[in-house]
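Q: I have 288 residues here and want to know how they pack in 3D. Can you give me a structure?
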Amino acid sequence: MLEKTLEFFAGQSTRAAVLTRQLAGQSQSGDPVLKQHLVRERRRQTRMDGSVNGSLLATAQTVSELLELDCPPDHAAIVRTLGFVLSRQDAPGHFGEGCDPDRHAVGECRHALTGFFSPASKDDEFRPMRFPSGIVIDREEDARCAASCYALEVVLRAREDRRPAVQKHIESLLGLQSLWDMSDRRWTSDVRALALTALAAAPFQYRADARERAAPFIESQTDDGLWADADILHVADAVSRFTAPEARRAVRRAWPSLFERQMADGSFDSDPERTFIAARVLAGSVDD
């Protein structure tokens, strides 16, 4: 599969192409310079406040891409963009804002959930959110939770895990019982996968709890290697972030379903980002 993916990216000068070649150990001589160009390109996309179009998701994605392009956490571009992401923590519109008796009873209000990032105020018109993996989340509260999980993962990868508010977010996410109860059909596997991706990036003191939350989700994989109501590529990427043997086995079981979705040109849905994600999943589990 990786060889076909490289064929899809042949001659391309995109971030996904550069990173896929790097994963395959086939970087080209011009790729280091190309990476620098891609970093400058992302810096030009930011506003004075460090955001990309004032969007939490778009800005967090830019931070993620800068990290992938080998920018260290103290790089000027990351400091600016990450500053905007952090400014959205506990801002109006975050998941868990406010309180009412029903939400209080299940621990889904401000008394139990803190540190979440807000994608937008509740006064703004809600629109379904599309995430970098290609999944779209339509339900508003799910989307607000998912957006915060994505932002949390990026913040943790940028080594901001010592911030008290960031640690509160991790702890709140671990304590969100309905999210980890696989019998609770309110949450989709796609949202749970975003939460697990964030927890997989958590510092050492949270790793045991993160593995405990991941276990029932991994076990819910069906015999054909899929997860119910989920995008297999998105979920396989999340599970691949865990190093436990059961996680590695689950990714391997998902391989046939992933192979079936690869197109003749080597891509996944003719989408460079999804194709890069598939290459990352494969490269991370090929030696297991």
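Q: Anything worth noting?
A: DSSP finds 14 helices and two strands in the chain. The two ends are 16 Å apart (CA to CA).
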